[in-house]
Amino acid sequence: MARILLVEDNEMNRDMLSRRLERKGFEVKMAVDGRQGVEMARAGGYDLILMDMSLPEIDGWEATRQLREAPETKTVPIIALTAHAMAGDRDRALEVGCNDYDTKPIELTRLLGKIEALLGGKTGT
Amino acid sequence: MSQPPHVSPGAGAATPFTPEALGELRHDLRTPVNHIIGYAEMLAEDAAGPELASRRAHLDEVLAAARNILSLINSTLGPNHTDVRAGDLSRLYESLRAPRQRIVAAVSAVLGAPDAQQDASLADDLGRILAAAGRLAGPADATQANGKTANGGQASGAPAGQDATGAATDNGAGPRQARILVVDDVEDNREVLRRRLTREGHAVETAGNGRQALELVQQRRFDLVLLDVLMPELDGYAVLETLKGNPATRDIPVVMISALDELPGIVRCIERGAEDYLHKPFDPVLLRARINACLEKKRLRDQEVEYLERVGQVIEAATAVEAGTYKHESLAPLARRADELGRLARVFDNMVVQMKAREGRLRDQVRDLRQEIGVARRDTREMSAMVDGGNLRSGERFSHRYEIIGVLGRGGMGTVYRARDLELDEEVAIKTLRPELLTDATLLGRFKDEIKLARRLSDQNIVRTHDFGEWSGVCYLTMEYVEGITVRELLDTRGKLGISSTLAIAGQLAHSLQVAHEHGVIHRDIKPQNLLLDDEGVLKVMDFGVARLAERSTSMTEAGLVIGTPAYMPPEQLLAEQVDARSDLYAAGVVLYECLTGKPPFEAASVTSLVAKMLTTEARPPVEVNAEIPPALSALIMRLLAKKPEARVQTAAELAEQLVGLG
Questions:
Q1: What is the DSSP letter of B435?
Q2: CB-CB: which of B23, B45, B161 is closest to A86?
Q3: I need a labelling partner for B357 at 20 to 30 A (CA). Which of B161, B223, B289, B312 fits?
Q4: This model's pTM is above 0.90
Q5: What value of ipTM does the predicted structure carry?
């Protein structure tokens, strides 16, 4: 069973996305801001990180940068979630080290496709 | 979180939004829709099994409405739309209103179901859907537009969404947990109250100043506000006034608290709508008693409001029935209730379903009839052109006011002309009466009385009688002109009619007789020639009361001369006995018999032998002539054809009722 860390400050987004992923068989842990996200990720054990880019404390861009610098999280796949498709967001996300990128509001099937692609054989169920 | 762009649309209403603002706007609107869809899909997944079919249907309704909203948003704010202005946005918000209301209604229906009452997590998620729907309200909807900031990471209190849930599940009885907001600028005071009230089982939030209190009240639902009078900046009086001045917060009870013990202050608070007043330091027992009293009062009022809302739903449904927009199941949540309102809703819903089914059947019957009329009209187009003859020529002036157009028909009574009423500029039918009919002064008097009565009949199934007059020695009647064909012509071209078409005629004929009989008018001469059908399939009975002229003191058998055919006359009329409403019902039976079988029940070579047959033999039941005729309809017609009036269907109303049961 794949473990996902969801870093998201909006309570409703967090609640909904985590529950929908759990229904698909993933184990989901949650962080409410960038600082907590980095701490939890570095503690280890995650197969994939979903990172909201606009976060309090440390934003998603900075958090991703830190995770890519730390040896224990260097290779964990990160999918950036941004609020709206601004030109350049995608390139910027890939540049700071994200493996993929999705826009909010989240369309579950689209996101699941990206998650499965990054996890290879290791899926929710 | 940034200021939502829809609150301040850039430089002015006429300026398009910037791409950044549009992106943000799109996001702000699509996020709540996405929340609605996400939660509704999860709840729909959970609602498996037949016992939850109704819940699933409501959730499907939520999903359908949410997807509708999404496509509306995309059609205005899609990534390809660059020229979007404030006007477009208000139109968008306007268009979102209906689907948003559908969502709220469907969620309320789920919440209202008895099985939802016990399920806290269901209620939570439904509350989240409601909260998200609230964020789709336009800026005009001020109380809900603020909901956006509720998710912005406020440190205090419940997770977003719980607010709306609370409101919906708030109707439990007895002493229970309440959400209380404590407003005091002194931290120690806030803490004391918070701890004490929490220990009582309440959920407590605190605000350190008036402004913060007003913000919190906008974001969440509270059952009670404890409000300190003396605070810097915005004091308790000002906060109280704002709360009571806003319809959204007006009903939250406010208890004022103050260390000052002065009467004018208390009076001032009560005058401005405060529920109660407490002195610091508090007596714990008094505090509890007063808070519970306040909450109990609010609970009772909420119950009353809820009850009235449900009564409102029934009234709304009644209005919808009148307007023809009632949807079956729209009272479903109410109908599941065990109380009187529930029973009322169930009965009401059932009635409407039956009524609609009946309307549907009637519509089908009339449609079939219209088809038959259409075919017959094509076949008789040339034939039914103007009939020759008559003493009046077309173009001739008649009685100053009318211009003759042509002859419509000739019968035992006289000639019927189509004419133009020059005064009112509309077409009328003029029936001139044969002078020899008018020689008996008594008979003429009775005839005039009858026409006076007939003139009062106003119904869509009755040809209106306008006037009786005399001109140049000619007595005449003017009537409504109906473009159409008679049932006689219809039968002559079609042979016989289908069961559905016959029922359409029967229902309308029964109705017209019911109206006339209730006004004391007996037709005396119901026959296919007197039944007009317009192109819409509307039946109009003509010549009400006219047959009075044809009455004789002697019976038909003795006189030997009959105006028209006796085939539709009941025995009592043939024998010149007492004629009453039931005589018309017999005639109606003959007409319907002929519609179904193509022939009247009795036929003979001469009038005398026909009359003899009618008086002495029984008709063959229609079902024996045509096996496709439903036995119940056949039996009903046989009851109309009973020789003795007392053995017939007794009233036109009863006939109408029986027909409804059949068709």
A1: G
A2: B23
A3: B312
A4: no
A5: 0.83
